[in-house]
């Protein structure tokens, strides 16, 4: 969606950076999303500052007026963050783990949230990172990144080249399967950064429809 209007802090001057605002379940997820944005939109991340709002995202079970109010609050925080940075709000990335497969429920949630963000955020771009099951499932698409974080780590063969959106509770699978030291949720950002550093993100191993949908949102930013 092409940004228009003057909300989000107004048009950035030539010597100002725009901002891309991230919102997620926690800081770890936002840092993972930042690495993915830098890989898929280097044209934007080279000039835009990536910043986070602290409010945890809890949208998947909301509908109607409750959803509209929650999106309004998040979008307002994104606009305020851009004003704080004295920059134009170039885009807003919203992450939430769906704890389920990319099935009819996933399709329904994604369409509902997409429509609501499109309705309320017409002056800037949005992208939804609705991970099935969770963002660790997306990290499984880049298995070669794990030993760059911990040399002893090796993703088990049973998790390679799969539809990682069908891996239930990928976080627990990684805890059991990688070896020592035991994988922690806080290791996720380091894995994503190594995937970015070693240029693994453009060539994922396996598939994950929720990840592809997120990448599609980023690709559509013009």
Question: What's a concise summary of this model?
Answer:
The chain is of the alpha/beta class. The protein has helices at residues 27-40, 42-45, 64-85, 104-120, 135-139, 146-149, 170-177, 188-197, 209-219, and strands at residues 19-23, 49-52, 89-97, 125-131.
Can you put this structure into words, describing what you see?
The chain has about 220 residues and is an alpha/beta fold. The chain has helices at about 25-40, 40-45, 65-85, 105-120, 135-140, 145-150, 170-175, 190-195, 210-220; strands spanning about 20-25, 50, 90-95, 125-130. It has 9 helices and 4 strands; from the N terminus they run βααβαβαβααααα. A 4-stranded parallel beta sheet has the order 2-1-3-4, sandwiched between helices. The model is unreliable at about 1-15 (pLDDT under 50).
Global structural class? alpha/beta
Cα separation of the termini? 6 Å
Query: What order do the helices and strands follow?
Result: EHHEHEHEHHHHH
Helix content: 40-55%
Largest sheet, in brief, is: 4 strands, parallel
Radius of gyration: 17 Å
The 3D shape can be described as globular
Strand content: 5-15%
Mean pLDDT: 91
- By DSSP (H or I, 4+ residues per run), the number of helices equals 9
Low-pLDDT parts are 1-16
Strand order of the largest sheet: 2-1-3-4
Give the tally of β-strands. Answer: 4
List keywords for this structure.
222 residues, alpha/beta, four-stranded parallel sheet, 4 strands, 43% helix, 11% strand, globular, disordered N terminus
């Amino acid at each position: 969606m092409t940004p228009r209007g003057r909300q989000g802090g107004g048009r950035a001057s030539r010597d100002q950076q725009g901002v891309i605002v991230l919102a997620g379940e926690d800081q770890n997820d936002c840092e993972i999303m930042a690495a993915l944005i830098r890989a898929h939109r280097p044209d934007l991340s080279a000039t835009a500052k990536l910043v986070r709002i602290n409010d945890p995202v809890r949208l998947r079970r909301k509908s109607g007026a409750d959803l509209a109010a929650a999106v309004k609050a998040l979008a307002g925080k994104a606009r305020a963050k851009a004003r704080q940075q004295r920059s134009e709000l170039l885009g807003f990335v919203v992450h939430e783990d769906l704890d389920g497969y990319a099935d009819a429920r996933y399709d329904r949630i994604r369409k509902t949230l997409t429509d609501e963000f499109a309705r309320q955020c017409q002056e800037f771009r949005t992208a939804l990172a609705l991970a099935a099951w969770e963002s660790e499932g997306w990290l499984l698409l880049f298995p070669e990144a794990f030993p760059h974080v911990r040399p002893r780590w090796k993703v088990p063969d049973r998790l390679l080249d799969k539809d990682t959106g069908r891996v239930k509770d990928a976080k627990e699978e990684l805890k059991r399967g990688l070896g020592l030291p035991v994988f922690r949720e806080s290791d996720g950002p380091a894995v994503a950064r190594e995937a970015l550093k070693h240029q693994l993100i453009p060539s994922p191993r396996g598939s994950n429809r929720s990840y592809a949908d997120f990448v599609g949102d980023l690709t559509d930013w013009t």
